[in-house]
Design a protein that fits this description.
- The chain has 512 residues and is α/β, with parallel strands linked by helices.
- The protein is built from 22 helices and 18 strands.
- β8, α5 and β9 form a beta-alpha-beta unit.
Length: 512
């Protein structure tokens, strides 16, 4: 008897439907075809054990299973459940009447219990697009899939419960979720607040500018100056995620297996802080079976690179293209996948190996030329792609002890949201541009041309600091953001002057 069950496979952050054709006929052998990998081939032993413990039997006949499309490689153990259900239906141990209505996914343990799988959200989205009635999933994944409205989502703990549901002998409640309510209940939550930072007003100003325009930023200062503390609080002043952004972010984390079974939707902007020993594939994604890297997990959020010069140069250089295109393409001989990578890069570094160059109290013990050599670990092209360069100075004791409470994150966020609203209206005709950091040269000429005084300041800065053409564009973008924060229409000289101050690490003007 021939039976078809349906599952899903994930490519990049999107899913496509897999049809499992199971035929049980006379004979004694087992055949699994359709480019399955080793994990899929090993499903026979898991299925056989699970069926036996669940009081069902492995058919003593010839079993042929084809996983279509047959030219696409099938990976992972998430096909155990649909294969097992197909075998039971094809051997007439259960009814096949309603099997074709559902996308079925789940990994089987030897005792028949179900383990969670990756990529459930894109699978549910694809199921809805293709007109399936619903999804049958492990209970741990059900809440995540329920984010997609218009589908009947059922979560189960073991294969016996799945069989009871398909046979109609067990009544199971659908997993229902109010996506908007789930989204709204935690959207304003803040883990780290700006009010906890004593002093550092100039740095907080630069972080506000970075958040308002979506600009990349690097902080340079001695150990203990507060670089990491400030970076962790940047996400708290970014505008809250929209529902579409939350769904897109959750899709990426779902594919990577990073979602929390208790929280169906990611409602806070991601903050990723990889260690400096990370590999190229760990940062940008890839591997034998491509997975999203840290830059994609930071999509719509912040990627914090602490101690930037300690990262391998090859790792940093592969970031150039994603920083410009906000997308990463992983190419292999047989396929290529695209992962979104629209993130704010925030980096920090010590000014020298000992960490105390330019320190107000402690003396730098590095030999001559070491400061420039240390800075040269970061290439000029990468520095050009960082809009704001900020020097962080340690806060003296009297300011730490006597500093009054500073502005909280929600107050700063309100100004950032107002500036972003101006930018959204400005770029409403271009769906690919949402903030000033994404402006093209054409839009710079249209929206960020400074007045005569500003142009003269910019000309002087370009000549004296030996800035590149890319740095010229970055200054204009930052000045446009400062202008938006003040609610002004035209970029003026003081906007340009402040933006130029944030290029302190360019070429030989710093640490000489």
């Amino acid at each position: 008897m021939l039976v078809k069950t349906f599952g899903s496979a994930v490519s990049g952050v999107n899913a496509y439907t897999i049809t499992m054709e199971v035929n049980v006929s006379k004979g004694i052998r087992f055949f699994l075809v359709g480019l399955p990998d080793n994990a899929v081939k090993e499903s026979q032993q898991r299925i056989e054990s699970a069926l036996k413990i669940s009081d069902y039997k492995w058919p003593g006949h010839k079993i042929v299973i084809n996983m279509a499309p047959a030219d696409i490689r099938k990976e992972g153990s998430s096909y155990d459940l649909p294969l097992a259900i197909g075998i039971l239906a094809a051997s007439t141990q259960i009814s096949d009447q309603s099997i074709g209505d559902y996308i079925i996914m789940g990994e089987l343990s030897l005792d028949g219990s179900l383990k969670p799988v990756k990529g459930v959200l894109p699978m549910a989205i694809k199921a809805k697009e293709e007109g399936f009635k619903g999804c049958i999933l492990p209970i741990q994944n059900a809440k995540e899939a329920a984010v997609v409205g218009g589908l009947d989502i059922y979560g189960f703990e073991n294969i016996s419960q799945v069989i009871g549901f398909l046979e109609g002998t067990d009544q199971v409640e659908k997993i229902q979720l109010d996506t908007e309510e789930e989204f709204e209940k935690s959207i304003q939550a803040v883990d780290f607040d700006f009010s906890e930072v004593k002093g550092q007003e100039s740095v907080k100003r630069s972080l506000e500018i970075a958040a308002a325009g979506g600009h990349n930023l690097i902080m340079i200062g001695p150990p203990g100056a507060g670089k990491s503390m400030l970076a962790k609080r940047l996400a708290s002043i970014l505008p809250p995620l929209s529902l579409d952004e939350a769904l897109e972010t959750t899709k990426i984390h779902s594919v990577a297996g990073k979602t929390d079974s208790n929280n169906a939707l990611i409602t806070q902007r991601p903050f990723r802080s990889p260690h400096h020993s990370i590999s190229d594939a760990g940062l940008i994604g890839g591997g034998s079976f491509p997975q999203p890297g840290e830059i994609s997990l930071a999509h719509n959020g912040v990627l914090f690179l602490d101690e930037l010069p300690e990262f391998k140069r090859t790792v940093l250089e592969v970031m150039r293209q994603p920083l410009e295109d906000r997308m990463i393409n992983i190419s292999r001989a047989r396929f290529s996948v695209d992962y979104p990578a629209s993130f704010m890069m925030v980096a920090s570094m010590n000014p020298c190996p000992c960490g105390y160059f330019n320190h107000p109290d402690k003396k730098c013990v590095c030999s001559p030329g070491v400061v420039q050599k240390y800075l040269s670990r970061i290439s000029g092209p990468l520095l050009d792609r960082i809009d704001l360069h900020i020097e962080v100075v340690p806060v003296p004791f009297n300011k730490l002890a006597e500093a009054p409470p500073s502005e909280n994150s929600l107050a700063v966020r309100e100004r950032v949201i107002r500036a972003r609203k101006i930018q959204n209206e400005r770029y409403s005709e271009d769906s690919n541009i949402h903030c000033n950091a994404q402006m093209s040269s054409r839009l710079l000429a249209k929206f960020a041309t400074p007045d005569e005084g500003g142009m003269q300041i910019l000309k002087t800065a370009m000549e004296k600091l030996d800035l590149s053409a890319r740095a010229y564009d970055r200054i204009l973008k930052v000045s446009r953001t400062i202008c938006d924060l003040e609610g002004e229409n035209t970029v003026q000289s003081h906007h340009i002057a402040e933006a130029v101050q944030y290029r302190s690490l360019d070429r030989s003007n710093w640490g000489a």
